[in-house]
Amino acid sequence: MSVVEGAIIYSNLLVLLSMSLTITYITTSVPNFAQGSFAVFGSYIAFALFKLFEIHPYKSVPLVFILGGFLGVVTYFLVLRPLIKKEASVLILMIATLAWDLILLGFLGIFSETLGKMIGGYASRFIFTPYDFRAFGMNGIFFVSSAAILLCLFGLAVLFYKTKFGIALRASMENPQLAEVMGVNVEYTRIFSWFLSGSFSALAGALLPFKQEIVQSTGALIIVSIFAASIVGGLSSILGAILGGYLIGISETLVTFYLSKLFGTGVLVYSKLIPLVILIVVLLYIPQGLVSIRWSKWRWSRH
Amino acid sequence: MITILLWFGVYAIVAISLNIEYGYGGIPNFGRAFAILIGALAVGAIVNRIFIALTGVSGVTYSAASGFAKSKIDALISSNPAYGILILLFCVALAAILGAIFGAIFILPSAKLKSDYLAITLLAISEVSFIVSYYNTEIVGGYYGTPTPNVLAFIPGESREIAYTILMLIFAALIFLLAERLMNSPYGRLLKAMREDEDVVESFGKDVMKIRIKTVALGSSLAAIVGALYTLYAGNVSGVVNLFARVNWTFYPFLMVLLGGMANNRGVLAGTFLFVAVWRLLDQYKHEIAAVLNLPFDVNWLQYIIFGALMILVLYYRPEGLIKEQPIRTEPIKEIKSGKKV
Fold first, then answer.
1. Which residues of B touch A99 (CB under 8 A)?
2. Domain residue ranges in chain B
3. Is A214 helix (H, G, I), strand (E, B) or coil?
4. How far apart are CA A137 and CA A214, in angstroms?
5. Can you tell me whether residue A134 is helix, strand or coil?
6. Is residue A240's pLDDT more than 80?
7. Do A113 and B297 touch (CB under 8 A)?
8. B317 in contact with A at a CB cutoff of 8 Å?
9. Cβ count within 10 A of residue B306
10. C-alpha to C-alpha distance for A139 and A8, rounded to whole angstroms
């Protein structure tokens, strides 16, 4: 796997995750700390289907997608909606998602150890790379992850701009009160956004083992990059999440790679510092994210 | 029972430090673990390096060198208890100072960020510092861990656990008294005012940023003391520097503060005790529980689910905690309550 290829695969998956985070932030205005575990949930489901029923991870993607969506909806109904009804503050909601992340970690641990007993082996850590196909001298995951992101974006575009429900969705994202007055059921749009968030994350999670090894706590490792990607994009714009995901994903991979060429492989442990530094710089200088920069202003000044 | 008391001492300090920052000051410090790490690093990275230099040992890795230095220092301590006490006090003082300095730097992003953005940033800083110190074997041995001197080496093995517990409880009591005094002073009132409305505090001529820096420096300093003490007790930095730090040193303290009652040190102590008792009992009987229920997995996973669910239930049913927040006892109020003439 060449470096650029790896960077693009990683970024594709990161974009899926940062879009998931952004979608629910827009509708529910809570940053979901359990987003990483949503993805790992997808990974373990794909692994279980593969080990128990010998369904290749690529073929189980639709099922994982739907199950992930249910996880998102369950999160909303079980954890967030009761608290929102009691008018809890954003911080309380954030603590609740942290708690939910811990619960999911517990379930993932139980699931993986039980699965290990069932298949008579070790299921706590795994990787799918040996099962990938190759085409045009590149790994299959490159094409699959790119296709996944294109399909998701195409689906979102059709949904948002060609359907009545999509218009209602956009309206309630822009201004929930006004949308409600116009007869949109904002509650439905919220539930739907949690479904999308869960399913996109699980999709990314099902594909992630083709790129890196998965353990139960992988979610905690990738959450920093997910937040960095979403915040760089502005946290409340899906376009921003896409830009941020590619910026963070590519710089995290490539910068670490070139630094390791200069200073040796010891640099690799610092790779997560890159999203953190970008995150802090963006928060301090352009807190509204990339989408808030008025590019036209720059164009004007040049002329 | 001893372990419950020991952990009660450890977590009482962490929870009080978080209560000062979050309960009173309203600062969402989702990176509490960072200050604990600073305390562990003070012992594991700085004090250890001093000892390696002093004893002149060398090893293939940093962990190995620390191990050799530890055995020499331990021998010295067991021959003369004064060295042990001195090293203990030095470690605590160093951790407190470093904790205050790094705490003050750590909170600087709050100049521009509010609530959710700030919480994410603090969590991210803390996460990344743990990832780096866990995967880099140069700083404190990373995943290999690094042995640290046993400051109570002069006490015979069987009663050492009790001695550490008493030590921890003494520190917890001192810090509790300090927190009680501070939080019932004008400074405590200022913190509560800042939590409720920063603009009002600002309009009364107070610099909110300065108060925040002071508060987090204080809280981090207390938390760093725990980091150092716990590392000395465990005899290895791996008790702090591991991948479950976010759960152990940030999430659980939040659970204790919210369970006990925000802005209420006594409530927080009650919450801490309740949490630690359940947690240690679950841990102690985990094999029995697994055997009785015929569970095919480690009970630790169940523990995560239980505490996660407990947190959500507390948030939903008792957001004010076990003991409700009480008005600050200023001198005039105390006099009125005791029936004296004012």
1. 251, 255, 307-309, 311-312, 315
2. 2-244
3. strand
4. 25
5. strand
6. yes
7. yes
8. no
9. 17
10. 12
How big is the CA angle at B309 (ends B306 and B313), to the nearest 5 degrees?
Answer: 130
How far is the C-alpha of A123 from the C-alpha of A46, rounded, in Å?
12
Number of domains comprising chain A: 1
- Put simply, whether B68 touches A (Cβ < 8 Å) is no
Counting every residue written for chain A, the total comes to: 303
Cα–Cα distance for residue pair A212/A210, rounded to 1 Å: 6
Instruction: Show the tokens assigned to B101.
Output: 């300095």
Which chain B residues touch A96 with a CB distance below 8 Å? 311-312, 315
What does pTM read for this prediction? Answer: 0.83
The C-alpha of B96 sits at a distance from chain A's nearest C-alpha, in angstroms, of 26
Rounded CA separation B255/B269 (Å):
12
Nearest to B124 among A102, A107, A279 (CB): A279
Contact B227, B130 (CB under 8 A): no
Q: Which residues contact A281 (CB under 8 A, 6 or more apart)?
A: none
Q: Is ipTM beyond 0.90? A: no
State pLDDT tens for residues A79-116: 888 888 887 788 888 888 988 998 998 888 888 888 88
Q: If you average pLDDT over residues A140-163, what whole number do you get?
A: 82
Q: What six digits make up the tokens of B305?
A: 């689910």
Residue of B nearest to A216 (CA): B301
Determine the pLDDT at residue A303. Answer: 45
Helix A35-53, helix A61-75: angle, nearest 10: 140
What pLDDT digit, counting tens, does each position of A267-298 carry?
A: 777 778 888 888 888 887 777 777 777 666 65
